[in-house]
Amino acid sequence: MLELLKECRLCPRNCGVDRSNGQRGFCGAGASVRVGRAALHMWEEPCLSGASGSGTVFFSYCTLQCVYCQNAQISQGHAGKEITVERLAEIFLELQQQGANNINLVTPTHYLPQIINALDIARKDGLRLPIVYNTSGYEKPDMIQKLAGYVDVYLPDFKYYSADSAKKYSAAPDYIEAAKQALETMVRQVGKPQFDDNGIMTKGVIVRHLILPGCYEESKQLLAYLHQQYGDDIYISLMNQYTPFAQVKNYPELNCKIPQKTYEQIIDYAVELGIENGFIQEEGTAEESFIPDFDGQGV
User: Fold this and answer.
1) Digit-coded pLDDT (tens) for 22-32
2) N or C terminus: fewer CB in 10 A for the chain?
3) Which long-range contacts (CB under 8 A, 24 or more apart) does 17-22 make?
């Protein structure tokens, strides 16, 4: 699998750089895996965290680099420690020993070959947990296909429903089409949602949508598309936790939180559409305290 790094085209950016020889593309990642945090996480959707927590592994760097990123410490590579594939496999097993409900791979796209190799090692050593692929949604179908038999639950973002927004905030005007094709591949691969006796999802797709200031009609259009296309075959997580940080100073329209009344109106719209399989967030989640410290814990 590591040969995929020689002319890296793991994501729709298609940089074509030789990461195995020290080159770095748009995401900034090299040949080594860099991880910012590996720990039980209680703030995921209830069917992922449960009572024990989701075994999250936060990878450094990102293929999308959104201007408003809530995890800029790791997405821009400022935080994290470089580790071997063997150490990554050990981390998976350590999270299992801590009682994690699953292994939750956060921003994993640019490390897909190393992750597959680590999963092969960990499974030989007793890893038995469901694997969650927690992604920006900016994926290539042929790469998702390589994850068949490895990933049980897909947790993609679907950030935009406007090429203008995708271009302005993520330099990815092709985001919508890429996310649509990737999501279709994910749903086809893992099928309808399945849960264990404790209500933990063991198979399926949860699509996350972070509502952005001023993009409210776009959010409604996206919800309509998702429901029309997939109905109850997916879950939708509608998030109000957007928090403006200093990096949005050049985007004044993003320098505010989502009004609770607006969030409730979008929830009402989802209900009117007939969406039943979904998650919403309580008021007060748009705080820095909900963003973990990327201090190398568990790495």
Assistant:
1) 999 999 999 99
2) N
3) none
